[in-house]
Design a protein that fits this description.
The protein is α+β, with helices and mostly antiparallel strands. It folds into 2 domains: 103 residues, Translation Initiation Factor IF3; 100 residues, 2-Layer Sandwich (Alpha-Beta Plaits), CATH 3.30.70. The strands form 2 sheets. It has a 4-stranded antiparallel beta sheet. A 3-stranded antiparallel beta sheet has the order 1-7-6, sandwiched between helices. The two termini are 40 Å apart.
């Protein structure tokens, strides 16, 4: 009787091992992004920097200040002419202590891509020095955006698994497991993209405010195959 029980146990364990050995899987990791729509742009407009301070000239400071004031007056009148809302960049209280030879920077915000291009065209035509300092994007934390990225990921995962299975003369079965993989791609790519974009105007100086322009996610999906 004892020998029979031992034999039965051996047979059960053998069947379990064979069953486990016969289970086959394909595991794939996929990564994708969706772009976020820009909803507003912020420009920094500078006093004219095409003239230099002449330190050897006794009247250099006053002449330079006069040129700056003329440049600032031109900028303000131009912004008012096109009805742009603008303000002095930085801390308003700090601007009270500006010296007459200090250049002023004006902040202008426009609401869409068409207005952005129109602003750039107008400023370039007038020879005004400017650059893009900030871009705001649509809300990334919405159900629709989350659903959109995961639909793309699941489709790509299935396509990749089917390709691997086909190359190995197999067929993809049911999903066994899904997990999310963390990636820093969105931070890096957004930083590079926005930095490069801020340098794309005629401005010689650059200020940068980080605004992620994409949603990026990656997942790992395990499929049964047969």
């Amino acid at each position: 009787m004892k020998n029979s029980l031992v034999l039965l146990l051996v047979l059960i364990l053998g069947n379990l091992c064979n069953s486990s050995a016969q289970e086959k899987f394909i595991e794939v990791m996929v990564k994708d992004t969706i772009a976020l729509k820009p909803i507003s742009y912020e420009f920094e407009v500078l006093s004219d920097s095409k003239f230099n301070y002449d330190y050897d000239n006794p009247n250099g400071a006053s002449e330079y200040a006069e040129k700056l004031r003329a440049s600032e007056s031109k900028i303000v009148n131009l912004l008012k002419e096109y009805s742009y809302e603008f303000s002095l960049s930085g801390n308003p209280d700090a601007n009270i202590t500006l010296e007459s030879t200090d250049k002023k920077i004006y902040t202008v915000k426009v609401e869409d891509s068409l207005e952005k291009e129109l602003f750039k065209t107008r400023m370039k035509k007038e020879g005004v020095n400017f650059y893009i300092s900030n871009i705001d994007y649509e809300d990334r934390d919405t159900e629709a955006k989350t659903k959109e990225i995961y639909i793309k990921l699941m489709k790509r995962a299935k396509e990749r698994a089917e390709l691997i299975a086909e190359l190995n003369h197999m067929k993809v079965g049911e999903i066994v497991e899904i997990s999310e993989s963390k990636s820093d791609f969105s931070f890096i790519s957004s930083f590079i993209e926005n930095f490069a974009y801020s340098r794309s105007s005629i401005g010689s100086s650059t200020s940068y405010s980080f605004n992620p322009s994409v949603i990026e996610k990656s997942i790992v999906v395990k499929y049964a195959v047969k």
